[in-house]
Every structure is written in structure tokens, then in C-alpha cells.
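Everyone, describe these C-alpha cells:
***
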Amino acid sequence: MRRTPVDKWLPSGVDDLEQAAWAAVRAGRSACVVAGPGAGKTELLAQRATFLLETGQCRYPSRILAISFKRDAAENLQARVGKRCPPGLSRRFTSVTFDAFTKGLVDRFASALPARWRLPNGYGDVSAIDKVRVKGFLSRHANSPAWGRSIAAMDPAAFESTVLGQWRLPVEQSDSQNATEFVANWWWFDQLRGRGAEPANLSFTMLNRLAELILRHNPLILRALRQTYPYVFIDECQDTSFAQYDFLLSVFGVLGVCVTAVGDEKQKIMEWAGAVPDVFARLRKDFDTEPIQLLCNYRSSPELVRIQHVLAQALDSSVEAAQSRQVAAIDVRDAAGIWSLDSTQSEARYVAEHVSRDMARRALRPRDYGLLVRQRAGDFEPLLAHEFANVGLRVRNEAQRLGRTTLQDLVIEPLVALYLGLLRLATRKRDRDTWLVVAETIRHLRAHDPGAESAGPVLGRRLAAFVRDLRTHLSSTPVGKETCELLLTKIDEFVDLESVAKAFPMYRSADTLSIVREAMQLHLVRSATSCLAWVDVLDAFEGTDCVPLMTVHKSKGLEFDTMVMIGLDDKTWWSYTPDNPEGLATFFVAVSRAKQRVVITHCSQRGSRAQVAPLFDLLRRAGVPETDLTVPALSGR
């Protein structure tokens, strides 16, 4: 493909970029881009990737590696690059999560580990380290004559991030020089050697440490990785953990690798989970990054951007005001409000009735609204679901568990997109867009199967024949659990799960593929329980006509016309303290999800507002009105 001269290159799919975004896209060195809410981080990184590939700055066969913290963010960025960049170039862009990338390295190169760190029995399901288990472990080792006092003072909640995460595994056995090395050595021994014939018990932080060791211990693998990925993107860099930052520094902190980090200190909500507190300063020092600040907000209306700026100033008094590029669609007086109610039932009823009326008046869809809670969305689900059902709407808890994953993580899986696409084709006579996506995915799968026929016309005929067979089966079979399981099995055989594992790096680990496949079947069966037609089953699977309910943390990267935060009170926000900026940052993230309207509810039955009074003070300072909505004010069913 012919290269585009740098001075002739233009953005794809957008009219223009703000001046700072142009600088970030064309940067010839590492850069740290501060991007507030609605600044268009995904678009910026997609344009940067397109620029590097189309101008030949990223020379063939080198690739670009983009590392995100959430699966949906990684998938969205991969899809956006696919839209902005020609297929022949976009295939040289790899977008993965940190955990998937480091886990993939261990799965592929485990045999290259030094003898002391080998995994003779492999490892089991990956999960976070339990605090209770850590507490017992530290208690057992607190009698160490040399390090007992320091061990006794360790925080079990921070053990994984600050002890295991900050310790580089030594190639050879050596005596411990401090309490951290002492307990880390013993912890690793227990997980690798103290379990007999059982698989090792590892967390993603531990896999990260093993991946870093593999590369540090094997210069040839490390050199090949750096040559493959001379350009690295880091999304949401403010949430980088100690282990993740050390991995980046060890692997990519060298001349010849250009790093583009994008994030926002005001949205730092993962410090409780071990995020590096001063990551922007470290990036400037360790990677010599050029600081760039984006000032446009393409998501929120001018009034909401003004309110967000008041909150932002409480986090950083020197922050510049963002410039809204969104047109206001409602009266400025309706853009934000606090609703005060006396019971959880009246709260749920009023929210449901408001959403129903507003949806009808403005011709919006259920998914244009987002119900956000601080945590434990399942506790809020029953009452909200009941009241929304009374107005003919459904609420879907995006945080619900499906086997070993969550619904929100499941629906953005590439495997799910493929299976759902095939089922959609079987329920519709004509769907050109879905056909093109499915056909391209099947072509990609067959390209990784040496024994398969990969010619376009042949693949097209086989895909058409399979869809016809699937359509015949659906039309002659009633909706039910057994049929759901049979359908997925038929698709398993057609796509060939071994080919899926070869074609998609995230599925090269057998347990990851089985987790997704198991959850997909669980969700399809659940979706079928209240449906009579297969097209309705698929709509229920996707949540097409459902109002999403989720935690604030799970809302990162999403946007809604109207965001309703349920429950700003001392009980729901029990961990909030004025001297801890992370609580305010979480609140800022929630408010900044909205495009047109923000609604915040307080229910006196659930909790008082003494502890969270500073948040109410900020809202008052921003001019957000509060309305007293007691039972008599309701429509009263």
C-alpha cells in the first residue's frame, strides 16, 4: 500500500481535530496526553494509529500495541481503528488489556522461565488474592526474628499491589534483604511449590511479574517484542498499577520505543486497587514524555461541562476549563438536579416514571439512560426492576455474574459478537452489515487453519449454506433451553473453537475460551426464558430495550444522554472522606458520563448526608438545584 506523505495526511472519519490533538497524533516522540471526560481518547488513539500506519512511520512488518485496562475499551479501540484505517494496515494494530497481554506472554513462553519459577503443573483459574488468606499468611510469618515487626504492620488489602506488584522476581535464589522480599519469597513458594501436584494459584499481578521475568531473562524474546511493537499506546494511564508500570518500564522504557499515554488524574478511581499515585510525573521522568492537554469535550452539553469544571477544580485548582462541542438538546434549567425522597420505593418509582415520560417526549431509547450506583448494583436491582416494569420498561444489571465473568464483560467478547452475528443472520432475510462483519471474521478464522479453504467465494458459499441450515432449524424449533444449547454446539462445530484460539490472542488460553463459552450459554438460556420468538431472544441477549444498571467503576468509558445516580448518601458512599480525592474522582466520573442531563437522588430512608455533605456543597456551588420529592408529590399509583 502506498504511503501518504506526512504533510499530506488528513484525519479519517472526522472533520478535524483540535490543535492539541493534532500535536498528539503527529508526535515524533513519546507523549503523555491529558484527556478529560468526553475529550475523545478513543478517537485520538485511532487517528494516531492511522497516521503512523498510513504514513509509514510504523514500518512494515512492525505493529502498534495498545494496552487498555478494560476489555470493552480495548475492543472499542480495535473497532475504531478498523473503521479509520484500511484492512491491510489495521491488521497491524493490536489492542488488548494489560492482563490479557501479560497472561498471553506467560502462556506462550512459560518454558523460558528460570528453573526456580517454572510452573510444573500449570496454573488454575486466575483470580484476585483474597484478603483473608493474606491476613492468615502474614500472621504465620509475623514471628520472623528479623522482619516480624515490619510484617505485622503490612496491610493485607495492599499486599498484592504494593508487595507482590513492586517486587521484581530474581532470576536466582538469594537471601531476603528486607521484609518485603521475605514475605514475597514465601508467598511465591507457597503458590508454586507448596501445592503438591495441584496447579499454581496465581493472580493477574503474579502473572505480570512472571511475564516481566521471562522478558528480562530472555534477551532474544525481549528484542523480538520491541522490534514487533516500536509504538505503544497506554489508555487510562492514571489507573496503572505498580506491577503494570514496572512491566512497561522494564520492557518498553528504552530508546527506539515510542510511548503514547492517555489519561486524566481527575478520573483516578483505582488507587484503592494499587494504582501508582504519581504516574504522570513518572512517565515524564522515565519515558521523557511530551505533555499535551486536550481541552475539548465532545460528550457533554455546555451546562454540564460548566458543572463538571466546578468538580474538577476541587480536584485540581489549576485545571483549565474544557470547551463543550456538544449541542444542548434540553433547557439549561433541566440539565442537572438533585431529587430528595423519603423512601427507596418512592425513589425507584419516581426515577422510573421520569425515564418513561422523558423517553416518550424526546423519542429516546432505553439505553440512552444509565442508572449508576456506587457499588453492589444487585442490591438496587429488585426494586428498580419492579418499578420500571410498572411503566413497561426493563432494567438490566450489567454487573450480574455469569459463571466466571460478568454480563458487561461478556457482551463485548469477539466470540460473542461472532455467534450473535450468525444467529442474527439466521433470523433476518437481509442484513448486509452483519453479513460483512461475520464473513470477515470467518475469513480471519480460516486464515489460521492451514487445512481450511480460505478463498472468498468458497467461504461465502459455505457461510450461506450454514446460515440457511441454522435458519431452518430456528424456524422449526421452539424457543427453549435445550435448543439454545444445541444451537451453540452447531456454531461451535462450524467456526471451530481451535481456529478461534489461533486467530484471537485473548483465547489462546483454554480457560479464557471456556469461561466465555460457558457464560454465553448461560446468558442465552436466561434470555430465552421469557421469549417466544428467536428474534426476541437475541434482543434480550443484547439488552436492546433495557435500561442499564451498573456501578460507577463499570461506567468508565461509557456515555448516556441522561445519567441517574441512585443514592448519594452516607450508607452508599460509606468510604467517602473529604481528605481522600479518590471519592470525589469517582463522583466526577459518574457526573461526566452524561451528555444532556444529570440526576442525583438522595433517599433519607437509605442514609443521611452528613458524611457526603461536601459533595452536596460542591453541587450547590455549581448551581445544581435540589427538589424535595416526597410521597404526596408523586403521581401516586
Observations:
- Residues 104-211 form one domain.
